[in-house]
């Protein structure tokens, strides 16, 4: 599993969860708070956070954390037919890794390739993903984990 956040004119580092299970508390500590606090501070009160309905995102601990940080979450139905726009980013990242001359032969090489290709993705692609969201908000970070189609 990989996790990352995108905003207009920016992105977080790619966070690869190579070992263990992503729990609500682990999600808060490793994935959620570092970038969300940074972006929330830069944007201010108009900041809106978007995630998907992954089990670790919907724990009481995560909701309490967002509430205590004063972070508004973009509400999405549990079984929304509207996919998270960042799925397009995961597809592009997977294609970049798969298109390398030497495909990664093991997990460590795959993690390195994912990280390198994440940094190379054009910012315009990420900006287009954010701008394509059905509900327009002044600033929204979408932080999402996904399986790279590789």
UniProtKB/TrEMBL annotation:
A GO MF label: nucleic acid binding
Annotated ranges, domain Tc1-like transposase DDE: 46-105
InterPro entries per UniProt: RNaseH_sf (IPR036397), Tc1-like_DDE_dom (IPR038717)
Protein name: Transposable element Tc1 transposase
Gene expressing this chain: X975_23399
